[in-house]
Design goal:
Elements lengths: L1 H52 L1
Length: 54
């Protein structure tokens, strides 16, 4: 029974660390996505301003 408790504890610790790694990946992905959207909007505004300048 004691080995079962230790095994469950180890599995819980591994699962918790995996969740924190995945949440870090999603946070980085969200930040990169926001930056990409801002860059695309900036490029669109720049292209529109080039055509309006002529």
């Amino acid at each position: 029974m004691k080995k079962l408790n230790v095994l469950l504890f180890v599995l819980a610790v591994i699962a918790m660390s995996g969740c924190s790694v995945i949440s870090g990946i999603f946070k980085a992905g969200a930040a990169v996505g926001i930056i990409a959207v801002l860059v695309v909007i900036g490029i669109i505004i720049w292209i529109i301003s080039m055509f309006r300048g002529r």
